[in-house]
Design brief:
Annexin V, domain 1, elongated, 19 helices, single chain, mainly alpha, 309 residues
Length: 309
């Protein structure tokens, strides 16, 4: 074990054992490290204290802070998998969380989530999603979970772009009713750069852009899913910035959404989310978190956020 990890282990152990728990030290150490480093600290803890660090943290922390810290002790894929599991187990499905995760993750991320889901829960993600959703909404989510999206190609196929744009128009706005199957196929199988060009081309066929068309054609969870997909294709980090802003400013602030985005994206694209947030709202994500949260939870989120832009 490196001296550095040993020092961090001692600091964490002391923080957990202190009367009244020293949350500040725990936050400082764990939010400022990568997942790999957090695993090393946990490993040192296990070897030295002969105890599981995650159980020790569970015992020492509570509430929103506990949720953040325990989330950080999982890999991104483990965290996503457990968030999906939480949104489909028990009574009623948390469709919003399911949509946010499944519609915003890349092929590589989805493949890893599926693998980890099976390891953690001894179940197939597809089966669980199918068992908990229905109709076209289920069909769309299952198509996404298959992770069959084409990878970006260096060749731009203008004919295919035109064909897809026309197919989307003819399957929706142009006809009575919506041929959802065509929409699902195109939006779950084409590469992101291709779809960006398709949506652009789409405007030359349809009087409405893609997002307006979705709002006119479908409702409920299906509408939310298609909108999330399109927003992520166009600018994923802006999608997350908007989600964060809405969650913090909504009545009964949606803490769960804020926690999930901060924890799941902190090692993926949080810096970019921060700059999109600032550009969109003229105020930094840091200041917005400071305004809408409090206590140790606030300290942890601000530390994850990093700088004030």
């Amino acid at each position: 074990l490196s001296l550095c990890m040993l020092t961090l282990f001692i600091l964490i152990e002391t923080a957990i054992k202190t009367k009244g728990v020293d949350e500040q030290t725990i936050i400082q150490i764990l939010t400022k490290r990568t997942y790999g480093q957090r695993r090393e600290i946990a490993f040192a803890y296990e070897r030295r204290a002969k105890k599981d660090m995650i159980s020790a943290l569970k015992g020492a922390l509570s509430g929103s802070l506990e949720t953040v810290i325990l989330g950080l002790m999982k890999s991104t894929a483990q965290y996503d998998a457990s968030e999906i599991k939480a949104s489909i187990k028990g009574l009623g499905t948390d469709e919003e969380s399911l949509i946010e995760i499944l519609c915003s993750r890349s092929n590589a991320e989805l493949l890893e989530i599926k693998q980890v889901y099976k390891e953690l829960f001894k179940k197939d993600l597809e089966k669980d999603v199918a068992g908990d959703t229905s109709g076209d909404f289920a069909k769309l989510l299952l198509a996404l979970v298959e992770a069959k999206r084409a990878e970006p190609s260096s060749v731009v196929d203008y004919e295919k772009i035109d064909e897809d744009a026309r197919a989307l128009y003819e399957a929706g706005v142009k006809r009575k009713g919506t041929d959802v199957k065509t929409w699902i196929a195109i939006m779950s199988e084409r590469s992101v750069p291709h779809l960006q060009k398709v949506f652009d081309r789409y405007k030359s066929y349809s009087p409405y852009d893609m997002q307006e068309s979705i709002r006119k054609e479908v409702k409920g969870d299906l509408e939310k899913s298609f909108l999330t997909l399109v927003q992520c294709f166009e600018n994923k980090q802006l999608y997350f910035a908007n989600r964060l802003n809405d969650a913090m400013k909504s009545k009964g602030a949606k803490e769960k959404v804020v926690t999930r985005i901060m924890v799941s994206r902190c090692e993926v694209d949080l810096k970019k989310i921060r700059s999109e947030f600032k550009a969109q709202y003229g105020k930094s994500l840091y200041q917005t978190i400071a305004e809408h949260t409090k206590g140790d939870y606030q300290t942890a989120l601000l530390s994850l956020c990093g700088g004030d832009d």
